[in-house]
Design brief:
With about 325 residues, the chain is α/β, with parallel strands linked by helices. It has two domains: about 1-50, no CATH class; about 65-314, Spore Coat Polysaccharide Biosynthesis Protein SpsA, Chain A. About 35% of the residues lie in helices and about 10% in strands. It contains eleven helices and nine strands. It has helices spanning about 1-15, 20-50, 80-90, 115, 140-145, 165-175, 235-240, 245-255, 280-290, 290-300, 310-314, and strands at about 65-70, 95-105, 125-130, 150, 180, 185, 215, 220-225, 260. The protein has a seven-stranded mixed beta sheet. It has a two-stranded antiparallel ribbon with strand order 6-7. Helix 1 packs antiparallel against helix 2 (about 20-50). The longest helix has 29 residues, at about 20-50. Mean pLDDT is about 90; it is low at about 280-285.
């Protein structure tokens, strides 16, 4: 992890150049591509050498709170997900469980790569479930462990060894809110109408809890028990209103409950993807072609959510 930690800390020490507009976003992208190439060239090989030598990646000591890492995957990523899970198992702050949810219909014979199944010896749990697409990331864990503190992560990202520690520290300082390593700030026009998702302020470093922040689960988000409205478990409405945007669904279920979101300054840019990550189609649908906006509208209108309070804080 030393190489990975060094590269990531250097990456996040560099400024976020989004304030320079399109040119700045291009700079951020170029920086990200450079660091991703360095990680892809070094990290998987280093991890393979340590793959079977590492000790347990989960907590063995009884403590007052249970912290569970929950994530999901699908066939196109299953060969490389062991790299992400290796990052999770090497965290400074050890979670009490690490659960990977897979759709039974996508893995009908339950045959998985040996590099992944070997990690069960170190604490990984692999569970099979109905396919709720990206919502599998949180749904079944939250339902089965309602009193636990659930941390969502993605299956295709490199993580440094403080990704969970940072969440826990924020949580200890603000136990009643949802804390996240990466957040976007909702933006409104002069008529108090919500702007399109792509025009929100991304990767903000706002230190105060706010209803205007949307957590992004991929970089790491910690959900305390009872921080979401119970409607979060309505499978039919998930499929009908918001099937491809779990972050949107979770944000609005938090708002419906009255729970704010908080981030901090540690992670100021997008996390970096592993190898040939298969995430372009979902990003294209949800962001570039307005999928997030239509799903936002669906949920807001169905539950008659009033965003006027949020608009006044912008």
């Amino acid at each position: 992890m030393k190489t990975l930690n060094f590269l990531y800390r250097t990456y996040f020490l560099l400024p976020n150049f989004d304030f320079l507009g399109k040119f700045g976003k291009g700079m951020n992208r170029a920086i990200g591509i450079s660091f991703k190439k360095l990680m892809d060239a070094t990290i998987p090989g280093q991890f393979k050498k340590l793959h079977l030598q590492g000790g347990s990646g989960i907590n063995k000591v009884i403590r007052e709170k249970d912290f569970i890492v929950s994530l999901t995957s699908f066939p196109a990523r299953i060969d490389d997900i062991w790299i992400t899970i290796e990052c999770i198992l090497q965290q400074r702050f050890k979670p009490d469980k690490v659960i990977l949810w897979l759709a039974e219909e996508q893995f009908p014979n339950k045959k998985l790569p040996s590099g992944l199944t070997q990690l069960k010896k170190r604490g990984l749990e692999i569970r099979f479930c109905d396919d709720l697409k990206a919502h599998k990331k949180y749904y079944y864990t939250m339902k089965e462990f309602p009193n636990s503190y659930v941390i969502t992560l993605d299956d295709d990202l490199y993580y440094d060894d403080t990704i969970i520690e940072n969440l826990v520290k924020m949580h200890e300082e603000n136990p009643e809110v949802i804390v996240t390593n990466r957040a976007h700030l909702m933006k409104f026009n002069k008529q108090a109408e919500l702007k399109k998702y792509r025009n929100w302020q991304h990767n903000v470093v706002e230190k105060h809890p706010s209803h205007a922040l949307l957590q992004t689960g991929g970089a790491g988000t910690l959900f305390p028990p009872n921080s979401l409205d119970m409607e979060v478990f309505n499978k039919e409405k998930i499929k009908e209103l918001c099937p491809l945007a779990d972050d949107i669904w979770l944000k609005l279920m938090a708002y419906k409950k009255g729970t704010k979101v908080m981030t901090n300054t540690k992670y100021n840019k997008d996390p970096l993807t592993i190898l040939q990550s298969q995430n372009e189609k979902l990003v294209s649908h949800n962001v570039l072609t307005g999928g997030n906006d239509s799903q936002l509208k669906n949920v807001i209108e169905h539950y008659n959510l009033d965003l006027l309070i949020i608009s006044k804080t912008n």
